[in-house]
Design goal:
By secondary structure, the protein is mainly α. The protein has two domains: 79 residues, Serine Threonine Protein Phosphatase 5, Tetratricopeptide repeat (Alpha Horseshoe), CATH 1.25.40; 79 residues, no CATH class. The protein has nine helices and no strands.
C-alpha cells in the first residue's frame, strides 16, 4: 500500500523489532537505548537476552552515557552476551570513571590495585597511586567499600605516593565542580 505524502514526512518507515514487536529507539536516543538494554538485561516484559542487552548498552555507551558504559564494561568483564575481554572492560570502565561514575571509579581502583601487586613491573608504583586516586574519588561519592579499599592501598604507599594520589584526586574533584557563579549542570529527566 502506498503511503500518502504526509505519512512519508511524519511517519517514516521504521523497522519493528521481531523479538518484542516494538519500534526500537532511534540513533541518538541514549536514554531510550539504555532503557531497552536494561529491559533485555533483566527480562522485564520480554525475554532476558544478554547479547541484545550488550548491543543496546553499546549504542547508548557510544553516545557517552556513563551508566551504559559501566554496564557494558561489566558485561565484558563477566563475558555476558559478549566474549570476555578485560581490555575492553577496562576501556569502558575508564570512560565511565572519567565522567564521574562512582562504581566505575571503584572498579578502576580495583584494577589498578591488582596491577600494583606485581613489584617487578616498573609501573607497579604508578598503579598504586592510580588505585589510591580512583578509590578516593569513589569514596568522595560514598561508594560502598571504597573507603576500606582506600585504607588497604594506603598501607603500601610511601608518603610521596600518597601526596601524589591526593594531588591527582584533588585535580579531578576540582574539575568536576562548577566555577564560582555558574550553576551546576543537571539533566532534567522529567
Amino acid at each position: 500500500m502506498k503511503k500518502t505524502w504526509f505519512r512519508k514526512i511524519f511517519r517514516p518507515d521504521v523497522r519493528v523489532d521481531p523479538v518484542s514487536k516494538e519500534i526500537p529507539p532511534a540513533p541518538g536516543e541514549a536514554l531510550a537505548q539504555f532503557a531497552r538494554a536494561v529491559s533485555f538485561d533483566v527480562g522485564a516484559g520480554e525475554t532476558q537476552d544478554d547479547a541484545q542487552a550488550a548491543h543496546w548498552y553499546r549504542k547508548a555507551a557510544e553516545q557517552g552515557l556513563a551508566l551504559a558504559q559501566f554496564n557494558l564494561a561489566i558485561m565484558y568483564d563477566l563475558g555476558q552476551g559478549l566474549t570476555k575481554d578485560q581490555a575492553e572492560a577496562s576501556r569502558w570502565f575508564r570512560k565511565a570513571a572519567d565522567q564521574g561514575d562512582a562504581g566505575a571509579q571503584f572498579q578502576m581502583g580495583k584494577r589498578c590495585q591488582r596491577d600494583s601487586f606485581n613489584p617487578s613491573e616498573p609501573a607497579s608504583g604508578e598503579a598504586k597511586i592510580e588505585a589510591f586516586k580512583w578509590f578516593t574519588l569513589a569514596a568522595a561519592q560514598g561508594y560502598k567499600d571504597s573507603e576500606m579499599f582506600l585504607e588497604r592501598v594506603n598501607l603500601y604507599l610511601t608518603v610521596k605516593e600518597i601526596n601524589e594520589g591526593q594531588r591527582r584526586s584533588a585535580v579531578v574533584l576540582a574539575a568536576s565542580k562548577p566555577a564560582a557563579g555558574v550553576p551546576p549542570m543537571t539533566d532534567n529527566l522529567d
